Amino acid sequence: MIYGNSKRENLSDLLIATLTSGRSIRRFNQILYERKMQRYKRGVIQSSLSRLSKRGYVKKSDQGWSATERGQKHLKRTRLFEYIESPFGKNAGAGTIISFDIPERDRVKRNWLRNQIKIFGYKMLQQSLWVGPGPLPKDFISRLEDMGIRKNVKTFKIRKAN
């Protein structure tokens, strides 16, 4: 199964989706998803659904396949570690400092955070002290809350003194 937005769509996918989307982002993403699923043979999809069913992630009913509660939790955990695209330009100035203290037992979350703020264009001052553009996107802050590490991350706005 495909999770999240893949950045590997080819040009023809993007053109077809753009031309037929009527500028609707929702329709655009739906078309790209349908085109991705067509790349797989029917037998491969059936095999994957069977495997996911045995693991308790999906179930089949009269209406078709649907995700179980366990599958939804698995998907949420998987998507937590996807990276968020940077909303900042390449040469965005430094306006925010991020400081964090994430325990060793949460090493995976700490490494995700470091990689994510690198994507945003932050530069390391020390292992857990970074400077870069701001303000931080709301979906980034909510991702920190979903991961349970928001309380370990502090942000400071940089103001120039007169």
Layout of helices and strands, plus pairs?
Blueprint: H1 11-21, H2 25-37, H3 42-54, E1 58-61, E2 64-67, H4 69-80, E3 96-100, H5 107-119, E4 123-126, E5 129-132, H6 138-147, E6 153-157
Antiparallel strand pairs: 1-2, 3-5, 3-6, 4-5
Helix pairs in contact: 1-2
Q: Taking Cα atoms only, what radius of gyration do you get, to the nearest Å? A: 20 Å
Topology pattern, helix = H, strand = E: HHHEEHEHEEHE
Shape: elongated
Low-confidence stretches: 1-6
Mean pLDDT: 81
What class do helices, strands and sheet pairing give? alpha+beta
Helix proportion range? 40-55%
Count of helix runs: 6
Tell me the distance between the termini: 55 Å
Find the count of extended strands (DSSP E, 2+ residues): 6
Q: Could you tell me the strand content as a percent range?
A: 15-25%
Largest sheet: 4 strands, antiparallel
- Enumerate the strands of the largest sheet in spatial order, edge to edge or round the barrel: 4-5-3-6
What does this structure look like?
With about 160 residues, this protein is α+β, with helices and mostly antiparallel strands. The chain is about 45% helix and about 15% strand. It has six helices and six strands, in the order H-H-H-E-E-H-E-H-E-E-H-E. It has helices at about 10-20, 25-35, 40-55, 70-80, 105-120, 140-145; strands spanning about 60, 65, 95-100, 125, 130, 155. The strands form two sheets. Strands 4-5-3-6 form a four-stranded antiparallel β-sheet, with no helix packed on it. A hairpin with a 2-residue loop joins strand 1 (about 60) and strand 2 (about 65). Helix 1 crosses helix 2 (about 25-35). The N and C termini lie far apart (about 55 Å). Residues about 1-5 have low confidence and may be disordered.
